[in-house]
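Here we describe the complex-level prediction in full. Unlike the single-chain runs in Section 2.1, the two entities below were treated as one system.
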Amino acid sequence: MATTEAETYIGKPVPRKEDAKLLTGQSRFIDDMQVTGMVWASIVRSPYAHAKINRVDVTAARESEGVVAAFSGADLADDWAATLPCVWLVTEDTKQPMHRPLATDKVRYQGDGVAVVIAESRAQAKDAAELVEVDYEELPAVIDPEAALADDAPILHDDLGTNHCFTWKLEGGDVEGVFGSAPVTVKERYRQQRLIPNAIEPRGVIATYEPALDEYTLWSATQIPHILRFWLAIVLGVPEARLRVVAPDVGGGFGSKLNVYAEEALALVLAKRIGRPVKWTEERSEGYLATIHGRDQWQEMEYAADEDGKIRGVRAKLVVGLGAYLQLVTAGTPILGGWVYGGPYDVEAYSLEVIGAFTTATPTDAYRGAGRPEATFLIERTMDALARKLEMDPAELRRKNFITEFPYTLASGLTIDSGDFVGALDRALEMAGYEELRKEQAERRAAGDTKELGIGFSTYTEMCGLAPSRILGAILYAAGGWDAATVRCLPTGSVEVFIGTSPHGQGHVTTFSQIVAERLGVPIDQVEVIHGDTTAMQLGLDTYGSRSLAVGGIALYNAAEKVIAKARDVVAHKLEVSGDDLEYDNGTFKVAGTDKAMTVRDAALHAFTAHDLPDGMEPGLEATFVYDPPNFSWPGGAHICVVEVDTETGAIDLRQYVAVDEIGNVINPTIVDGQIHGGITQGIAQALWEEAIYDEDGNLTTGSMLSYLVPSAAETIDYELDRVNAPSPTNPLGVKGVGETGTIASTPAVINAVVDALSPYGVTDVTMPAKPENVWRALQEGGAK
Amino acid sequence: MKTVGITVNGESHSAEVEPRQLLVYFLREQLGLTGTVVGCDTSSCGSCTVLVDGESVKSCTMLAVQADGHEVTTIEGIGSPGDLHPVQQAFHEQHGLQCGFCTPGMVMATISLLEESPSPSNEEIRHALEGNLCRCTGYVNIVKAVKAAATA
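The structure predicted for the assembly as a whole is:
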């Protein structure tokens, strides 16, 4: 793209600056890095879901070729100053079990680490890990969260005496009154299966320790270098100022790299103990056990409605499988949907109860959408149940209930700043050709076609852009939700930008360059965006929860405005006019009514030489802004999925997928489309293909990519996207979060379509994933046509 | 240890390898060609796809000793930032990559596909790339990129 000084960038499909290195193999992912003197760690993991550790013997491993050291969990038990953290203990009485990087007394899920071996090479470490002998005394497993709460369930954490972790409740409005008086009620129960995030880059770390300086450095495939630094300083009991965390190129995250993992703490401790840099790279099957999972809920929802379909109250209950320990956001993940179980609908009474249970499985945590896909699924599935009960068209039922006036305060207490749910639905219906589809459906049914057509809706809103710090404090989240950016205009004309968010595929370098290049009037290739290193940029709270643009991007915009304000003073002084007489446009200050002008770039040079600045002005042209958002971000929209279901084989063909999203103003439409494509695919994958399955002994039977179906291009289809726009009035760019919308919206659209197709057979639910077997079962249970 | 002679990106290499050494680790750790990456341990994800004598191969399914006497092409051998291969250029223009981890494998698989079928249909593209997983893009723009590369 041409780079003239007057170029505008915001809203344009600027090609990504990130691509050249990624396309040519010059990227630097964690496993691409070597450090002089580096040794390899391999972790010995429990084959049992639940067992007492009687003895761990690392003697043979220590004697194996190339081995530098080997430790059991007990050997390292005193190296930890604190448990691995959970940032959000959601109630005052939430139970947090001790979670050491290596287990000492018991193992509590298949994959729980019990020992670590360090050797000169990757292969030697792996070979020696096989020689560690562990004497386990097997205990019964419990995988289902409801079963884990039963009186006779095996207890994971003996000191807690229960598998119950928390019960969280939220109520608004007259719930009892509304449910007591409503003429129509529906009640549904669904299963949110466990999912494995599957970022294509496995996790990995390299840790170094400099004894002379007592300094640690951790390179990690993480989404959260800043949060990691803070928590690892606590876990290790070392000064935060002597710990540097770097996220190099990171190959996807989807929440799976939004954590403080055992291996990150372990590598740092081992680097100090051994006196050499330590590297650990996860194997994929190892990651299926050792990296967080997502979802795992039993869900119940009731709607109270009038006979004309107006919904008056929602009452929902979730029982959540937390897995064996609380990872960083394990307890909070279901609560992230806690305020939006009313969906985009005008609902006067609201009740939600969330119960968390420990189970002998890998911990669940924030997987793309985190709590909100679960919410949207329950809302939208129950919406269709109500439509069936009232014999209403599902689109019309939704239209009848949409929130139409903004700002709108939800019965759950939060305020949606803007939206256009009606506009999104209208556009989606038009794009899908809804009337024609219904006609075709009726014709096929009349003709006795064994391939049934189904049309499924998901109209949604969600809360993202995490988050206003005061609200986070009020709901017991341990950190804030601000983010930060620094803009530094260099004297030679280029601009350095430091951001506190940490991209791993989202294109921050390009998007954020667009904002700065446009506001400061510099060519986009003169903007350098630096991220992912706590030494380069100490301030930041990283990338998750669709927050990077809605929070970090606004910090950056405001930092650029601070730079412009200072430049105005520099220019006014040089041109001997009042700052008020200067008009600013795209990098240039003009004196109104004259031909006198000066650019930000000129101001940067003057601010650098400092030969002639206003009295008292600090030299240099740079600014940092720490932005704490006043509200969450509220995207929304309407998705329609069209499927064909073969009633003889149970096979589902995706025929069409329409997504109309309302995500505020868009900085880079190409990047945004890409986020939506990927998000939709992950949501469809939950509906149709993916499931982490444990057997009754707690063995993960979907333990590799061979048995867990991550969709390929062959399973998926093209999507039809469009947008309506109701810019957020909360921030100066009018933007909203978009990274999770596709995943939040798409799962129920697919299942609603499948159920719609099979409704003549009395089918009201198909268990996810809707593989042919589950479709067949639903048809058997549904009864005859 | 075994001695192998493998031509990689036009340059011949003679090296000592362990018989169990996979081609992908030979490329990454002995030759330092880290553009070819490892995404799984079951030959499922295709991130490690390279060309061996012009045919796409998952380099985690092949031992280095099996590549003895053969020609291997990796992502580093097809283009550079200032001089992208038409397939790389198409992925850039169509936004066919996000995190970029699967991208080298996806690009190499595409080169192999277009070699065999110079103007594939969408369906053909989707089936041909079945062995290469991407978690970011939902494949929509990857398919567009392959189409664009085919007509470039």
